[in-house]
Design a protein that fits this description.
By secondary structure, the chain is mainly alpha-helical. It has one domain: Formate dehydrogenase/DMSO reductase fold. The protein is 76% helix and 3% strand. The protein has 15 helices and four strands. The strands form two sheets. Strands 1-2 form a two-stranded antiparallel ribbon. β1 and β2 form a beta hairpin. α1 runs antiparallel to α7, α4 packs antiparallel against α15 and α12 packs antiparallel against α13.
Length: 333
């Protein structure tokens, strides 16, 4: 018999991963803005994502809607626990959206919209990371409701994961721009990629140490039966890091971005193994949090219809706007 709760958990997990991959690089471009003060460079950077950035955020909506439909307990408890960081994340996304619309048309106020784009990107990314760290630390639930305080999310670990996600998205953005740009701008991206990669590897190492030391349940899972799955992960992370540095050295354009995606996938695998089978750490399993079976069946029909549509138009959008971006290309008409 089909395990509907598990199917829905897989759909939501896929949606989160695709969101991180797609929206990560365009948030990363805003994080990289301070390194490139020239207006021409900034316009090329924005033009590289202008046709696709809003579509990338479709996957965030999919994840939220999926939680609401299939795991209402998770939706209610997690959003209550992380209300403040998620609101601040949305403020950042709004700033970015306004900057995308107005910056290409502005002249005197362009520095203001540059600042809005940078702040919005950093704010959205940082508080996504904070929410992730708070989620890993665990959310107290009593009688299927959030039982903690308004600032339980605020901790040294969650602040560090917020900073770590800034580094992650910066590397993604740099890898994307290596593919999409040329000339001096691309050469500067090649020079920036190695130090950013080393920072990201340091972040991965620190989080990998901090998480089991601060969370006994995760430590027991990592060094218990899951060890058979996890022991190759650190080696694969080091191999990907070396591969990025080597690819940059020889001037390969696509490989740094692809290997960064592999790093993110490895980190995401470690995250899923760490919380499995819980949807609300430390003790609410995906089956305990699931909606009634009739609701899961009904909503799954819609998901089966809409997922291929989203995947198709996303792939088509990237195919249409493939190739290098130049300063005279228009981001918006």
């Amino acid at each position: 018999m089909l395990d509907l709760a598990l199917v829905w958990a897989a759909i939501i997990a896929l949606g989160v991963l695709v969101y991180v991959v797609l929206d990560g690089f365009d948030l990363g471009i805003g994080i990289l803005f301070p390194f490139f003060p020239e207006d021409e460079d900034r316009q090329v950077m924005m033009n590289s994502v202008a046709p696709v950035w809003d579509g990338n955020e479709t996957w965030m909506v999919l994840g939220g809607a999926g939680l609401f439909a299939a795991f209402p307990v998770v939706y209610a408890a997690v959003l209550s626990a992380l209300y403040l960081p998620l609101v601040l994340m949305l403020v950042g996304l709004i700033l970015r959206g306004v900057a995308f619309e107005i910056r290409p048309k502005s002249r005197r106020t362009r520095p203001v919209w540059d600042l809005a784009f940078m702040l919005g990107s950093a704010l959205a990314t940082f508080f996504q990371g904070v929410a992730l760290g708070a989620f890993i630390q665990g959310i107290p639930v009593l009688n299927r409701e959030f039982a903690g305080g308004a600032f339980d999310w605020l901790s040294p670990f969650s602040l560090f994961t917020g900073m770590g996600l800034l580094a992650t998205y910066a590397v993604l953005g740099c890898g994307w721009l290596i593919i999409k740009t040329e000339g001096e701008l691309q050469r500067r991206m090649f020079r920036l990629m190695p130090p950013l990669t080393l920072v990201l590897l340091a972040v991965i190492g620190l989080v990998s140490l901090w998480t089991p030391l601060s969370q006994p349940a995760i430590a027991a899972r990592w060094f218990g039966p899951a060890l058979a799955w996890l022991w190759p992960v650190p080696l694969a992370v080091l191999a990907c890091g070396w591969g990025i540095l080597h690819a940059v050295k020889i001037g390969a354009e696509i490989r740094p971005y692809v290997l960064t995606l592999a790093l993110i996938a490895l980190g995401y695998l470690g995250f899923l193994i760490s919380i499995w089978p819980n949807l609300i750490p430390p003790g609410i399993s995906l089956w305990a949090a699931a909606a009634p079976e009739s609701s899961l069946k009904f909503t799954l029909v819609g998901a089966v219809v809409i997922l291929p549509v989203i995947l198709a138009y996303t792939a088509w959008g990237y195919w249409v706007f493939r190739g290098k971006v130049r300063v005279h290309d228009e981001g918006y008409h």
